[in-house]
Design a protein that fits this description.
Chain lengths: 368, 106
Protein backbone atom coordinates (compact mmCIF):
# COMPACT_ATOMS: atom_id res chain seq x y z
CA UNK A 1 0.00 0.00 0.00
CA UNK A 2 1.50 3.32 -1.03
CA UNK A 3 1.95 6.15 1.49
CA UNK A 4 -0.35 8.34 -0.64
CA UNK A 5 -3.17 5.83 -0.37
CA UNK A 6 -2.66 5.55 3.37
CA UNK A 7 -2.71 9.30 3.67
CA UNK A 8 -5.91 9.54 1.64
CA UNK A 9 -7.54 6.87 3.79
CA UNK A 10 -6.48 8.64 6.99
CA UNK A 11 -7.86 11.93 5.67
CA UNK A 12 -11.12 10.24 4.71
CA UNK A 13 -11.42 8.68 8.16
CA UNK A 14 -10.75 12.02 9.81
CA UNK A 15 -13.40 13.64 7.62
CA UNK A 16 -15.88 10.91 8.41
CA UNK A 17 -15.17 11.25 12.10
CA UNK A 18 -15.73 15.00 11.91
CA UNK A 19 -18.92 14.51 9.94
CA UNK A 20 -20.25 12.01 12.48
CA UNK A 21 -19.29 14.33 15.29
CA UNK A 22 -21.15 17.18 13.61
CA UNK A 23 -24.23 15.12 12.91
CA UNK A 24 -24.29 13.26 16.20
CA UNK A 25 -23.58 16.14 18.53
CA UNK A 26 -24.15 19.48 16.87
CA UNK A 27 -27.17 18.47 14.81
CA UNK A 28 -28.63 16.12 17.43
CA UNK A 29 -31.51 18.50 18.11
CA UNK A 30 -32.45 18.38 14.43
CA UNK A 31 -32.49 14.69 13.67
CA UNK A 32 -33.10 13.07 17.06
CA UNK A 33 -36.76 14.12 17.49
CA UNK A 34 -37.53 13.04 13.93
CA UNK A 35 -35.88 9.66 14.45
CA UNK A 36 -37.67 9.28 17.79
CA UNK A 37 -41.01 9.92 16.10
CA UNK A 38 -40.15 7.41 13.39
CA UNK A 39 -39.19 4.79 15.98
CA UNK A 40 -42.32 5.45 18.05
CA UNK A 41 -44.47 5.12 14.92
CA UNK A 42 -42.75 1.86 13.96
CA UNK A 43 -43.04 0.54 17.53
CA UNK A 44 -46.74 1.44 17.57
CA UNK A 45 -47.22 -0.29 14.25
CA UNK A 46 -45.71 -3.50 15.65
CA UNK A 47 -47.47 -3.31 19.02
CA UNK A 48 -50.82 -1.64 18.36
CA UNK A 49 -52.19 -1.77 21.95
CA UNK A 50 -49.32 0.48 23.10
CA UNK A 51 -49.44 2.80 20.08
CA UNK A 52 -51.48 5.67 21.49
CA UNK A 53 -49.70 5.59 24.84
CA UNK A 54 -46.22 5.74 23.30
CA UNK A 55 -47.19 8.44 20.85
CA UNK A 56 -48.83 10.61 23.54
CA UNK A 57 -45.79 10.23 25.80
CA UNK A 58 -43.39 11.16 23.01
CA UNK A 59 -45.47 14.20 22.02
CA UNK A 60 -45.45 15.35 25.65
CA UNK A 61 -41.70 14.84 26.00
CA UNK A 62 -40.96 16.73 22.79
CA UNK A 63 -43.44 19.57 23.26
CA UNK A 64 -43.42 20.21 26.99
CA UNK A 65 -40.02 18.98 28.11
CA UNK A 66 -38.19 19.99 24.92
CA UNK A 67 -36.37 16.64 24.85
CA UNK A 68 -36.02 14.27 21.90
CA UNK A 69 -37.30 11.12 23.67
CA UNK A 70 -35.03 9.16 21.34
CA UNK A 71 -33.77 6.76 23.98
CA UNK A 72 -37.26 5.89 25.22
CA UNK A 73 -38.63 5.59 21.69
CA UNK A 74 -35.69 3.35 20.81
CA UNK A 75 -36.42 1.05 23.74
CA UNK A 76 -40.10 0.98 22.79
CA UNK A 77 -39.15 -0.02 19.25
CA UNK A 78 -36.84 -2.78 20.48
CA UNK A 79 -39.35 -4.17 22.96
CA UNK A 80 -42.39 -3.82 20.69
CA UNK A 81 -42.31 -7.39 19.22
CA UNK A 82 -42.12 -8.94 22.71
CA UNK A 83 -44.88 -6.66 24.00
CA UNK A 84 -47.03 -7.42 20.95
CA UNK A 85 -46.62 -11.15 21.61
CA UNK A 86 -47.48 -10.65 25.27
CA UNK A 87 -50.63 -8.72 24.32
CA UNK A 88 -51.61 -11.43 21.81
CA UNK A 89 -51.27 -14.19 24.43
CA UNK A 90 -53.15 -12.07 26.99
CA UNK A 91 -55.95 -11.51 24.48
CA UNK A 92 -56.22 -15.24 23.88
CA UNK A 93 -56.51 -15.82 27.61
CA UNK A 94 -58.77 -12.88 28.17
CA UNK A 95 -62.16 -13.59 29.77
CA UNK A 96 -63.71 -11.42 27.04
CA UNK A 97 -63.24 -14.34 24.62
CA UNK A 98 -65.69 -16.51 26.48
CA UNK A 99 -67.54 -19.71 25.82
CA UNK A 100 -70.66 -18.76 27.75
CA UNK A 101 -68.89 -17.91 30.97
CA UNK A 102 -65.52 -19.63 30.84
CA UNK A 103 -62.48 -18.58 28.83
CA UNK A 104 -61.43 -20.88 26.00
CA UNK A 105 -57.90 -20.73 27.35
CA UNK A 106 -57.73 -20.59 31.11
CA UNK A 107 -55.33 -18.45 33.09
CA UNK A 108 -52.11 -20.40 33.50
CA UNK A 109 -52.78 -22.77 30.60
CA UNK A 110 -49.73 -23.83 28.61
CA UNK A 111 -48.42 -22.00 25.59
CA UNK A 112 -49.11 -25.08 23.46
CA UNK A 113 -52.80 -24.98 24.36
CA UNK A 114 -52.95 -21.28 23.53
CA UNK A 115 -51.23 -21.98 20.21
CA UNK A 116 -53.59 -24.87 19.48
CA UNK A 117 -56.63 -22.70 20.15
CA UNK A 118 -55.21 -19.89 18.00
CA UNK A 119 -54.44 -22.34 15.18
CA UNK A 120 -57.88 -23.92 15.30
CA UNK A 121 -59.49 -20.48 15.42
CA UNK A 122 -57.48 -19.07 12.52
CA UNK A 123 -58.06 -22.15 10.36
CA UNK A 124 -61.76 -22.12 11.12
CA UNK A 125 -62.54 -18.97 9.17
CA UNK A 126 -64.20 -18.30 5.85
CA UNK A 127 -60.99 -16.61 4.70
CA UNK A 128 -59.25 -19.98 4.91
CA UNK A 129 -62.01 -21.44 2.72
CA UNK A 130 -61.57 -18.68 0.13
CA UNK A 131 -57.77 -18.97 0.12
CA UNK A 132 -57.92 -22.78 -0.19
CA UNK A 133 -60.47 -22.60 -2.99
CA UNK A 134 -58.44 -19.96 -4.85
CA UNK A 135 -55.26 -22.04 -4.44
CA UNK A 136 -56.90 -25.25 -5.69
CA UNK A 137 -58.59 -23.61 -8.67
CA UNK A 138 -55.41 -21.69 -9.51
CA UNK A 139 -53.31 -24.86 -9.37
CA UNK A 140 -55.78 -26.79 -11.53
CA UNK A 141 -55.92 -23.94 -14.05
CA UNK A 142 -52.14 -23.58 -14.19
CA UNK A 143 -51.73 -27.38 -14.39
CA UNK A 144 -54.20 -27.59 -17.28
CA UNK A 145 -53.31 -24.57 -19.39
CA UNK A 146 -50.39 -22.83 -17.68
CA UNK A 147 -46.75 -23.39 -16.74
CA UNK A 148 -47.57 -26.14 -14.20
CA UNK A 149 -48.66 -28.42 -17.06
CA UNK A 150 -45.15 -29.89 -17.21
CA UNK A 151 -44.74 -30.18 -13.43
CA UNK A 152 -48.14 -31.48 -12.36
CA UNK A 153 -50.49 -32.30 -15.28
CA UNK A 154 -53.92 -33.96 -14.97
CA UNK A 155 -54.68 -35.92 -12.69
CA UNK A 156 -52.56 -33.50 -10.60
CA UNK A 157 -50.63 -36.11 -8.60
CA UNK A 158 -48.71 -33.55 -6.57
CA UNK A 159 -51.86 -31.60 -5.75
CA UNK A 160 -53.51 -34.84 -4.60
CA UNK A 161 -50.50 -35.66 -2.45
CA UNK A 162 -50.57 -32.13 -0.98
CA UNK A 163 -54.30 -32.48 -0.33
CA UNK A 164 -53.80 -35.75 1.51
CA UNK A 165 -50.97 -34.42 3.64
CA UNK A 166 -52.84 -31.22 4.48
CA UNK A 167 -56.00 -33.17 5.17
CA UNK A 168 -54.19 -35.31 7.74
CA UNK A 169 -52.68 -32.18 9.31
CA UNK A 170 -56.07 -30.45 9.43
CA UNK A 171 -57.55 -33.53 11.11
CA UNK A 172 -54.94 -33.10 13.84
CA UNK A 173 -55.79 -29.40 14.10
CA UNK A 174 -59.49 -30.31 14.46
CA UNK A 175 -58.58 -32.76 17.23
CA UNK A 176 -56.51 -30.08 18.99
CA UNK A 177 -59.40 -27.63 18.72
CA UNK A 178 -61.81 -30.30 19.95
CA UNK A 179 -59.67 -31.00 23.00
CA UNK A 180 -59.43 -27.28 23.80
CA UNK A 181 -63.22 -26.94 23.47
CA UNK A 182 -63.85 -30.03 25.66
CA UNK A 183 -61.54 -28.70 28.37
CA UNK A 184 -63.15 -25.25 28.19
CA UNK A 185 -66.62 -26.84 28.41
CA UNK A 186 -65.55 -28.85 31.47
CA UNK A 187 -64.22 -25.70 33.13
CA UNK A 188 -67.43 -23.90 32.24
CA UNK A 189 -69.42 -26.72 33.80
CA UNK A 190 -67.40 -26.62 37.02
CA UNK A 191 -67.68 -22.83 37.12
CA UNK A 192 -71.44 -23.00 36.60
CA UNK A 193 -71.65 -25.60 39.39
CA UNK A 194 -69.73 -23.36 41.78
CA UNK A 195 -71.81 -20.33 40.80
CA UNK A 196 -75.09 -22.16 41.33
CA UNK A 197 -73.84 -23.58 44.66
CA UNK A 198 -73.07 -20.06 45.85
CA UNK A 199 -76.48 -18.82 44.69
CA UNK A 200 -78.29 -21.72 46.40
CA UNK A 201 -76.36 -21.03 49.62
CA UNK A 202 -77.35 -17.35 49.47
CA UNK A 203 -81.00 -18.20 48.77
CA UNK A 204 -81.06 -20.67 51.66
CA UNK A 205 -79.59 -17.99 53.91
CA UNK A 206 -82.33 -15.55 52.88
CA UNK A 207 -84.95 -18.23 53.70
CA UNK A 208 -83.35 -18.75 57.11
CA UNK A 209 -83.47 -15.03 57.82
CA UNK A 210 -87.11 -14.90 56.77
CA UNK A 211 -87.76 -17.79 59.19
CA UNK A 212 -86.14 -15.73 61.92
CA UNK A 213 -88.29 -12.72 61.02
CA UNK A 214 -91.39 -14.92 61.27
CA UNK A 215 -90.34 -16.06 64.73
CA UNK A 216 -89.61 -12.49 65.82
CA UNK A 217 -92.91 -11.26 64.47
CA UNK A 218 -95.31 -13.92 65.59
CA UNK A 219 -93.39 -16.37 67.76
CA UNK A 220 -94.62 -18.88 65.23
CA UNK A 221 -92.09 -20.61 63.04
CA UNK A 222 -94.61 -21.82 60.51
CA UNK A 223 -96.28 -18.65 59.29
CA UNK A 224 -95.67 -19.69 55.72
CA UNK A 225 -95.41 -23.31 54.65
CA UNK A 226 -93.49 -24.14 51.52
CA UNK A 227 -90.85 -26.65 50.54
CA UNK A 228 -87.53 -25.98 48.84
CA UNK A 229 -87.04 -27.27 45.32
CA UNK A 230 -85.77 -30.90 45.51
CA UNK A 231 -82.87 -30.01 43.19
CA UNK A 232 -81.35 -27.69 45.83
CA UNK A 233 -80.52 -30.72 48.01
CA UNK A 234 -79.54 -32.96 45.08
CA UNK A 235 -77.28 -30.32 43.54
CA UNK A 236 -74.68 -30.57 46.30
CA UNK A 237 -74.30 -34.35 46.01
CA UNK A 238 -74.02 -34.48 42.23
CA UNK A 239 -70.73 -33.55 40.61
CA UNK A 240 -70.75 -31.16 37.67
CA UNK A 241 -71.09 -32.95 34.31
CA UNK A 242 -67.81 -33.24 32.40
CA UNK A 243 -66.91 -34.82 29.07
CA UNK A 244 -65.17 -37.78 30.74
CA UNK A 245 -68.56 -38.89 32.17
CA UNK A 246 -69.62 -39.74 28.62
CA UNK A 247 -66.71 -42.13 28.12
CA UNK A 248 -68.10 -45.17 29.88
CA UNK A 249 -66.86 -48.71 29.17
CA UNK A 250 -63.72 -49.99 27.51
CA UNK A 251 -64.52 -48.46 24.11
CA UNK A 252 -65.21 -45.10 25.71
CA UNK A 253 -61.91 -45.19 27.55
CA UNK A 254 -60.05 -46.11 24.34
CA UNK A 255 -61.80 -43.25 22.50
CA UNK A 256 -60.89 -40.85 25.31
CA UNK A 257 -57.27 -41.98 25.32
CA UNK A 258 -56.95 -41.59 21.54
CA UNK A 259 -58.65 -38.18 21.55
CA UNK A 260 -56.41 -36.86 24.31
CA UNK A 261 -53.19 -38.23 22.81
CA UNK A 262 -53.90 -37.25 19.21
CA UNK A 263 -55.50 -33.94 20.13
CA UNK A 264 -52.27 -32.46 21.43
CA UNK A 265 -49.96 -29.98 19.80
CA UNK A 266 -47.17 -32.54 20.16
CA UNK A 267 -49.07 -35.02 17.97
CA UNK A 268 -49.71 -32.29 15.42
CA UNK A 269 -46.03 -31.28 15.39
CA UNK A 270 -44.95 -34.94 15.12
CA UNK A 271 -47.30 -35.56 12.16
CA UNK A 272 -46.06 -32.47 10.30
CA UNK A 273 -42.41 -33.28 11.08
CA UNK A 274 -42.82 -36.90 9.92
CA UNK A 275 -44.33 -35.84 6.61
CA UNK A 276 -41.67 -33.19 5.99
CA UNK A 277 -38.93 -35.65 6.95
CA UNK A 278 -40.30 -38.26 4.56
CA UNK A 279 -40.37 -35.77 1.67
CA UNK A 280 -36.92 -34.47 2.59
CA UNK A 281 -35.45 -37.97 2.71
CA UNK A 282 -36.95 -38.74 -0.69
CA UNK A 283 -35.56 -35.52 -2.17
CA UNK A 284 -32.01 -36.27 -1.00
CA UNK A 285 -32.30 -39.91 -2.14
CA UNK A 286 -31.96 -41.40 1.35
CA UNK A 287 -35.22 -43.27 0.93
CA UNK A 288 -35.86 -44.40 -2.63
CA UNK A 289 -38.95 -46.42 -1.87
CA UNK A 290 -41.41 -43.53 -2.11
CA UNK A 291 -40.23 -40.85 -4.52
CA UNK A 292 -42.07 -37.83 -5.95
CA UNK A 293 -45.12 -37.63 -6.04
CA UNK A 294 -44.88 -39.84 -2.90
CA UNK A 295 -47.69 -42.37 -3.53
CA UNK A 296 -46.99 -44.33 -0.34
CA UNK A 297 -47.16 -41.21 1.85
CA UNK A 298 -50.39 -40.23 0.06
CA UNK A 299 -51.86 -43.69 0.70
CA UNK A 300 -50.78 -43.62 4.35
CA UNK A 301 -52.20 -40.12 4.82
CA UNK A 302 -55.53 -41.17 3.30
CA UNK A 303 -55.83 -44.25 5.51
CA UNK A 304 -54.77 -42.37 8.63
CA UNK A 305 -57.12 -39.49 7.83
CA UNK A 306 -60.04 -41.92 7.67
CA UNK A 307 -59.20 -43.18 11.17
CA UNK A 308 -58.71 -39.62 12.45
CA UNK A 309 -62.06 -38.55 11.02
CA UNK A 310 -63.80 -41.34 12.92
CA UNK A 311 -61.98 -40.21 16.09
CA UNK A 312 -63.22 -36.66 15.37
CA UNK A 313 -66.78 -37.99 15.05
CA UNK A 314 -66.39 -39.79 18.42
CA UNK A 315 -65.19 -36.52 19.94
CA UNK A 316 -68.14 -34.64 18.44
CA UNK A 317 -70.50 -37.20 19.94
CA UNK A 318 -68.90 -36.77 23.37
CA UNK A 319 -69.13 -32.96 23.05
CA UNK A 320 -72.77 -33.25 22.03
CA UNK A 321 -73.74 -35.58 24.87
CA UNK A 322 -71.88 -33.61 27.55
CA UNK A 323 -73.48 -30.46 26.14
CA UNK A 324 -76.89 -32.07 26.66
CA UNK A 325 -76.00 -32.89 30.28
CA UNK A 326 -74.83 -29.31 30.90
CA UNK A 327 -78.02 -28.01 29.34
CA UNK A 328 -80.13 -30.25 31.62
CA UNK A 329 -78.19 -29.03 34.65
CA UNK A 330 -78.59 -25.40 33.58
CA UNK A 331 -82.36 -25.94 33.29
CA UNK A 332 -82.57 -27.62 36.70
CA UNK A 333 -80.50 -24.84 38.30
CA UNK A 334 -82.64 -22.11 36.72
CA UNK A 335 -85.86 -23.93 37.67
CA UNK A 336 -84.75 -24.37 41.28
CA UNK A 337 -83.60 -20.76 41.55
CA UNK A 338 -86.88 -19.52 40.13
CA UNK A 339 -88.76 -21.69 42.64
CA UNK A 340 -86.67 -20.32 45.53
CA UNK A 341 -87.11 -16.70 44.43
CA UNK A 342 -90.88 -17.23 44.19
CA UNK A 343 -90.88 -18.71 47.69
CA UNK A 344 -89.02 -15.67 49.00
CA UNK A 345 -91.43 -13.31 47.25
CA UNK A 346 -94.44 -15.16 48.68
CA UNK A 347 -92.98 -14.98 52.19
CA UNK A 348 -92.18 -11.27 51.82
CA UNK A 349 -95.73 -10.63 50.60
CA UNK A 350 -97.04 -12.58 53.60
CA UNK A 351 -94.90 -10.52 55.97
CA UNK A 352 -96.09 -7.30 54.28
CA UNK A 353 -99.68 -8.36 54.88
CA UNK A 354 -98.82 -9.01 58.51
CA UNK A 355 -97.16 -5.56 58.86
CA UNK A 356 -100.28 -3.96 57.41
CA UNK A 357 -102.37 -5.90 59.91
CA UNK A 358 -100.14 -4.68 62.77
CA UNK A 359 -100.34 -1.04 61.68
CA UNK A 360 -104.08 -1.28 61.17
CA UNK A 361 -103.80 -0.90 57.42
CA UNK A 362 -102.20 2.55 57.72
CA UNK A 363 -99.03 2.62 55.73
CA UNK A 364 -96.46 5.04 57.11
CA UNK A 365 -95.69 7.88 54.69
CA UNK A 366 -92.28 9.24 53.83
CA UNK A 367 -92.80 12.46 55.84
CA UNK A 368 -93.78 10.51 58.93
CA UNK B 1 -40.71 -11.02 46.51
CA UNK B 2 -40.49 -8.15 44.05
CA UNK B 3 -38.02 -7.91 41.19
CA UNK B 4 -35.40 -5.19 41.05
CA UNK B 5 -37.33 -3.41 38.28
CA UNK B 6 -40.54 -3.50 40.33
CA UNK B 7 -38.73 -1.96 43.28
CA UNK B 8 -37.29 0.79 41.07
CA UNK B 9 -40.73 1.62 39.69
CA UNK B 10 -42.39 1.46 43.11
CA UNK B 11 -39.61 3.65 44.49
CA UNK B 12 -40.38 6.26 41.83
CA UNK B 13 -44.01 6.27 42.94
CA UNK B 14 -43.19 6.25 46.65
CA UNK B 15 -40.73 9.12 46.40
CA UNK B 16 -43.61 11.44 45.54
CA UNK B 17 -46.83 9.59 46.40
CA UNK B 18 -49.27 12.19 45.07
CA UNK B 19 -47.49 12.72 41.77
CA UNK B 20 -48.82 11.52 38.43
CA UNK B 21 -46.24 9.60 36.41
CA UNK B 22 -46.25 8.43 32.81
CA UNK B 23 -44.45 5.71 30.83
CA UNK B 24 -41.60 7.67 29.25
CA UNK B 25 -41.04 9.63 32.45
CA UNK B 26 -40.82 6.42 34.44
CA UNK B 27 -38.41 4.94 31.91
CA UNK B 28 -36.17 7.97 32.25
CA UNK B 29 -36.45 8.16 36.05
CA UNK B 30 -35.94 4.48 36.79
CA UNK B 31 -33.89 3.21 33.87
CA UNK B 32 -36.33 0.31 33.47
CA UNK B 33 -36.76 -0.53 29.79
CA UNK B 34 -40.16 -0.49 28.12
CA UNK B 35 -40.23 -4.28 27.70
CA UNK B 36 -40.31 -4.67 31.48
CA UNK B 37 -41.98 -1.39 32.42
CA UNK B 38 -45.34 -1.72 30.70
CA UNK B 39 -46.10 -5.31 31.83
CA UNK B 40 -45.01 -4.21 35.29
CA UNK B 41 -47.37 -1.22 35.28
CA UNK B 42 -50.19 -3.53 34.14
CA UNK B 43 -49.44 -5.92 36.99
CA UNK B 44 -49.27 -3.17 39.61
CA UNK B 45 -52.55 -1.80 38.28
CA UNK B 46 -54.18 -5.25 38.51
CA UNK B 47 -52.90 -5.58 42.08
CA UNK B 48 -54.53 -2.23 42.87
CA UNK B 49 -51.26 -0.63 43.93
CA UNK B 50 -51.42 2.03 41.24
CA UNK B 51 -54.26 3.41 39.20
CA UNK B 52 -53.99 4.37 35.56
CA UNK B 53 -56.18 6.96 33.88
CA UNK B 54 -56.17 9.23 30.85
CA UNK B 55 -54.83 12.72 31.27
CA UNK B 56 -57.58 15.34 31.62
CA UNK B 57 -56.64 17.81 28.89
CA UNK B 58 -58.26 19.25 25.81
CA UNK B 59 -56.22 17.71 23.01
CA UNK B 60 -57.01 20.57 20.60
CA UNK B 61 -55.96 23.24 23.08
CA UNK B 62 -52.78 21.46 24.16
CA UNK B 63 -51.92 20.31 20.65
CA UNK B 64 -50.95 16.81 21.79
CA UNK B 65 -52.76 13.56 22.62
CA UNK B 66 -53.71 12.55 26.14
CA UNK B 67 -51.13 10.58 28.06
CA UNK B 68 -51.87 7.60 30.24
CA UNK B 69 -51.00 8.67 33.76
CA UNK B 70 -50.37 6.50 36.80
CA UNK B 71 -50.83 7.37 40.47
CA UNK B 72 -50.14 5.44 43.65
CA UNK B 73 -53.28 4.24 45.47
CA UNK B 74 -53.70 4.21 49.24
CA UNK B 75 -53.26 0.43 49.37
CA UNK B 76 -50.31 0.70 47.01
CA UNK B 77 -48.66 3.16 49.35
CA UNK B 78 -48.88 0.76 52.30
CA UNK B 79 -48.27 -2.52 50.46
CA UNK B 80 -45.64 -1.03 48.17
CA UNK B 81 -43.71 0.41 51.08
CA UNK B 82 -43.79 -2.97 52.85
CA UNK B 83 -42.66 -4.77 49.70
CA UNK B 84 -39.80 -2.34 49.11
CA UNK B 85 -38.78 -2.66 52.77
CA UNK B 86 -38.75 -6.44 52.43
CA UNK B 87 -36.65 -6.19 49.28
CA UNK B 88 -34.08 -3.95 50.91
CA UNK B 89 -34.02 -5.78 54.26
CA UNK B 90 -31.22 -8.19 53.43
CA UNK B 91 -29.36 -6.03 50.97
CA UNK B 92 -28.50 -2.55 52.12
CA UNK B 93 -29.66 -0.04 54.71
CA UNK B 94 -33.20 1.01 53.83
CA UNK B 95 -33.32 4.35 51.97
CA UNK B 96 -34.47 7.28 54.07
CA UNK B 97 -37.50 8.06 51.95
CA UNK B 98 -39.01 4.61 52.63
CA UNK B 99 -38.94 5.03 56.40
CA UNK B 100 -41.43 7.06 58.36
CA UNK B 101 -40.06 9.98 60.42
CA UNK B 102 -38.31 8.59 63.48
CA UNK B 103 -38.14 5.05 62.04
CA UNK B 104 -34.71 3.42 61.76
CA UNK B 105 -33.34 0.92 59.29
CA UNK B 106 -33.60 -2.73 60.54
Amino acid sequence: MTPLLLLTLAALLALLHKAFELVLTNEYATWAPGLARLLARAAGFICRPQRSQWWADLCFVQREEKASGLLQAGWCFLSSPALALRHAVARLRSPRRQLAGAPLIEEGAGMLDAMGAALARSLGSMWTVYVTLAFLLGWIALGTWGPLRRVDPYPFSFLLFLDNVLFTTICFVILVGQRVVIRAADRQSRQAYENSSTLFRQLTEVQTRLDRHDVLLTRDHARHESRPHPWVAQHDVQAPPVAADQLGGVNGRIAGWITVRLGSMWALAAAVALQLLWIGLAQVNVQRFDRYPYPFMSFLSTVFTLVLLIVVVVGQDVIGRSGDRRSERAFLNADAMLHEVRRIQERLADQERYFEHLTGGDRPTATE
Amino acid sequence: MLSKSSVKVLAAFLESPGQELYGFGLMRATGVKSGSLYPLLDRLEQMGWIEGYDEAIDEHVEGRPRRRLYRLTASGKTAGKAAVLEFYRDLVPVPGWVLAPGETSP
